[in-house]
Amino acid sequence: MNSSILILASLLYLSFLFGVAYWAEKQSEKGKSLVTNPYIYALSLAVYCTAWTFYGSVGRVVTNGIEFLAVFIGPSIMMPIWWIVLRKIIRICKAQRITSIADFISSRYGKNATLGVLVTLMCILGILPYIAIQIKAISNSFMIAMRSSPNENLDKFFLNDLSFYFVIALSIFTIIFGTRKIDSTERHEGMVATIAVESIIKLVAFVTVGIFVTYYIFNGFSDIFSKASHIPELSKSFIFNSTTESSTWLWHTLLSVMAIMFLPRQFQLAVVENVNEKHLNTAIWLFPLYLIVINIFVIPIAMGGHILFPYNTVNSDEYVLAIPLRFNEKLLTLFTYIGGFSAATSMIIVETIALSVMISNNLVIPTILKNSKLQDKFGGNISGLVKIIRRTSIVLIILLSYIYYKTIAGHYSLVSNGMVSFSAVAQFTPAIIGGIFWKGGTQKGALIGLLVGSLFWFYTLMLPSIVGAGFFPQSIMDHGLFGWSILKPFALFGLKGMDSISHGLFWSLLFNTLCYLYFSIKSTPSSIEHSQAVIFVDIYEYSNHVESASIWRGTAYLNDIQLLLSNFLGERKAEKVLRLYTQKHNIKLNSEKADPQVVSYVEKLLAGIIGSASARIMISSVSKEEKISTEEVISILKSSQSLLSANKELKRKSVALEKATSELKEANEILKKTDKLKDDFLSTVAHEIRTPLTSIRALSEIVYDNPDMDVTEREYFLGTVVKESDRLSRLINQVLDLEKYESGKQKLILEEVDMQEIVKDSIDALYQQAKEKEIKVVFLPDRFAPRFMADRDKLIQVVVNLLSNAIKFCEPQKGEIVLATHYVEGCIYTSVQDNGAGIDKNFQRLIFDKFFQAEDQTIKKPKGSGLGLAISKKIIALHQGEIWVESEVGKGSKFTFMISVV
Ligand code: ADP
Predict the structure, then answer these.
(1) How does this protein sit in the membrane (predicted)?
(2) pTM of the model as a whole
(3) What's the pLDDT tens digit per position in 482-503?
(4) Beta-carbon contacts of residue 270 (< 8 Å; ≥ 6 apart)
């Protein structure tokens, strides 16, 4: 295939990845974060499948049979362990703002900087060769697709070597999406999305080749298997019976279980980039499924390749590409190439980002901070510095890997180097597992265990490949160091019969674990070690309030603490973050000395940016710290825990109390209101009764005192007495009436009525009054209004009341009153309109209240009790109707009531 097509395709693919990453970051800015999706999380974990899986698995089948499956079976069957181990690690990292595996171990054992350095170095040593073989895979696949020999590239001067340029492009990509934000709380969403997409692409590419080989070149699985059974070397590799092999299986499975949790790239994606613990639930089934699918066709491709290219004419690592190429399937070859490219680039990107965080937070920053001269130099802008360090580390890691590839890795197959890397990170297992389940693990134990394990790892696994590349004499391998045969790297202490990986893993892990246990038991932990141990092991107890518990004693000036934080977050953000925290925890920010809780919080924030060991150094540089005893630590954690639950209970109670109080208040308001209404009512009634009573009494006294009063005068007085008595009894009747309505005792006596008749009868009743005032009364009936069920007498009472009001408020002679009925859509509207005084807008609502007159004593009181409209309203309400008024002062009023008749 033409090299320019391949270059173009690679570059297009890289820009596509840029696009994905960019889009994902934009989505997240818009609040539609992609990483909240558990499937994206599970897919991103498939970064586990590197170029080693893509090309190397097939190669390994040819040389070692189905042994390759161990590294996939291990993680699959051990997935449930994640729920126990990984969930706990995720919880701890969130509470402690831990961003790398080096930081995790350093933080657990008293935020020890040396441990951080050791883990980081181990990762660099272990991972560089692994990255190197990815570069090798890219370079090889490129050469194969071009139909050249892969080794040609190795000998080229780097400027003429295309893979060098890929490496540069990758560095740029990694820098852009890996170091834009350096705070732990802000994740690399673009990067995660890219990795998830790459996982899909490599899977589809590999399965496509598999289908092509199995169903187009051969006739399905059985065809390949039966053809392969005729080839002796092949059939031999699939028989699985010797004890060596089963122990190899066991060790490789164990190794991959450890690797899938502790490889920096896995830790980065599974722990640091995790946004929701629940995503593990999806990962637990989806990730093994992914592994199964990507492995289905490994054996058919391996057998197919072996049948197609007999006598080792083509290296088995290259079958995946070589087969489509042989059949001249250009498009498929290109797609396969891109699949392998995906596998390699995703691994390089994540691994490099994870390593760069460790290098900056665990190697460089602590060194700068410990050296006061360096610190002065960079003091002002550490966050800028962190970025520079990370970017430089990214370039350095990729370049060093490139150099490693050019000098050493080029001479090895893909798989063996990967297993060496796995074994390197497996050394973290005792310190991590011990650290999260056993409070007794100490700094000393972890340090010595890790150191010893690493030495054994280096001697048994790393050294051989360096020897193989010619940097050390071969005699070490053959006769042991110093010629002592018990020191042979592949048969240490005379242990033979294991493959080199199992052998190295066995010795290194054995001594690592023994040292860890022994020195942990022998040493006593410091208070900070102890407090970290308690938090890590009992994280589920503390995770909710770790933020509010401050395991720190000492004095620090608030200014210094704030300045420190500004160095990393910028002044505005630092101020905002502190303000939010202090508001949430009810801490005052106006004192000169910083609250210990604030100091702890700032330390945690810094840990998220520069690692816990560096954060520790920074905080102690601006404060005077006091030693705090182990007992105190535990009591702080305990008290903040009980405080938290007490607080919760208190909050719950106060909420309930608040509710009860407001209910009580409401009831009280209502009571007060009715009480006032009752008072008003009583005083008004008394007042209304007193007026006629006074005149009755005065008039009867006059008549009584003047027995010789003349008859006409006496008649006049007695007439008035009778009228006033009438008014009195009417008022008392009305009050009693209203009381009946209000207490709900008043019942309607329903019969079939005709609204026209009711109005006519009412007019008849008041005919005399209207005639006296010479007021014109007109009735406009609606002939279509149907008869309906109602209380006839009560409705007459309403109309009489409205009409008598109208007569009362019309001027004599000029008055004109129009009564009308309308039947509209099931409702009868009855209105009484006059051209009298009219009602002020402010009072229109109030006139339906009882004794409206009493509300405003300044208005000139017309005759009447002020109860008529209130009673009318009750009557209409009992008929499920409504009554209202439209009026304008000086022009007249129109009272209408509506009753539904259906
Ligand atoms: P009253 O027995 O005093 O008439 P009502 O409850 O029937 O008691 O009326 C309350 C008040 O509403 C009256 O005092 C008067 O101020 C006002 N009002 C009622 N009808 C009219 C009307 N047609 N024109 C002007 N004001 C009216």
Answers:
(1) Multi-pass membrane protein
(2) 0.64
(3) 666 666 766 667 667 667 788 8
(4) 45, 86, 90, 261, 283
Indicate whether 677 and 615 sit together in one domain.
Answer: no
Tokens of 39: 């499937």
Average of pLDDT values for 25-50?
Answer: 84
Alpha-carbon radius of gyration of the chain: 47
CA–CA separation, 567 and 118 (whole Å)? 28
DSSP codes, 454-496: HHHHIIIIIHHHHHHTTSS-THHHHH-GGG-GGG-TTSGGG--
- Reported as a single tens digit per residue, the pLDDT across 89-105 is 988 888 777 888 988 99
Same structural domain, 255 and 382: yes
Mean pLDDT, rounded, for 512-541 = 84
The two structure tokens encoding residue 815? 């008055």
Mode of pairing for the β-strands spanning 788-790 and 816-824: unpaired
- Closest ligand 1 atom, residue 838 Cα: 25
Calculate how far, in angstroms, residue 670's C-alpha sits from the geometric centre of ligand 1: 27
3-state SS assignment for residue 708: coil
Task: Report if residue 201 sits inside a domain.
Answer: yes
Taking the C-alpha atoms of residue 885 and residue 849, their distance in angstroms, rounded to an integer, is 13
Q: Is the pLDDT of residue 290 over 50?
A: yes
Ligand 1 pocket mutation, candidates 847, 857, 891, criterion most atoms within 8 A of CB = 847
**Number of structural domains the chain divides into:** 4
Centre of ligand 1 to C-alpha 850, Å, is 11
DSSP three-state, residue 828 = strand
Q: Which residue in this structure is represented by tokens 């009882």?
A: 850
Domain interval for residue 823: 751-900
Q: Using CA atoms, how far apart are residues 129 and 411, in angstroms rounded to an integer? A: 12
